[in-house]
Amino acid sequence: MAGHPPQERPWRAALGVLFGLALGDAMGYPTEFMDMEQITATFGPWHTMEMPLSEGDVVRVTDDTQMTLAVGEALAEITTSPRETGGAWGAPQALTPTQVEAALRRHLVSWLRSPDNNRAPGQTCLNACAALERGIRWQDATVISSKGCGANMRVAPVALVPGLTPEQRAGIAQLQAAMTHGHPTALAASDLTAHAIWLLTQGCALEDLLVQLRLYALQARRKYHGDWLGDLWQKAGAPDPESYIAFGWNECLGALGKVSDALRRPVVDRDPSAAVGPGWIAEEALATALYCFLIVEGDARGSIMRGAHSSGDSDSIAALAGALAGARHGTHFWLHEWLEALEYRKRMEALGSAWD
After folding, report:
1. Shortest CA distance to 293 belongs to which of 253, 333, 245, 254?
2. Which of 3, 48, 142, 337 is the most buried (most CB within 10 A)?
3. Total structural domains in the chain?
């Protein structure tokens, strides 16, 4: 953000991000396994999509939102709750990797065992969380070869906790990913996703966003957060920590390049998954979400409509696009009737009230 004056973050930015992520998730839920012909036949053109309602007129979300809440509530538990010793309120500056890992483990296992965990969750998350439940080291629990988008679909809360240092934000973003997805690209994409949301809450201009993300990736390329990640690089069989994490950042840089290429000749009605990628893997989920957000010039509802009307992992793409839009606009452009029916709204409002 060098050369840019600091700006006040959007009013209720945290709540805007959480709402945007959940609304995008909900809009993309029914289109996830459809091709473009089926989506258009069922829902019409992307710019006229309506929010789907489930039985009981509920805006129903998927595991993307559920796991985002698990991460958010884990962080809220250790940053806004009184400590057992002395009763002082937790300060982000005092956070340790051990505290964060323990809180994430508790909340991820709670998600695993929730009766609401019936939204076709990813096998990587299920297997890793089951291993976490058994109490083994997270470096041994993670699925070391996986870079699925489950790593970064849930990272948004890391960008919203007030007072984190850049080192803490990066370390927590990578740790929460690494506990289930051990591939270096899962870590880098999660860090980059959190940074994109944070940049937008700080007033980053749309035309600067990709430049700032590329700069961040280049600066982070060979920085292994050993305090947060421990010996994960050895588990992955990398020759050294720097080579392990650089592989992930290189793939993220390639994904950012695809976004830039697609935006040079923008066709707003083109399937975003064809323009950038289907989004089943972490770096593609972010890249395609960035494309959906930028192709509509940051329009809030347009971002999630464009993401949901795609042939790939539409709920995750639209969820991340919605998080980006919420970071830019706060709660201003999310329709009241959508929010009134939104599943888990009270839990999101509790986090928003703590962080906004």
Report:
1. 333
2. 142
3. 1
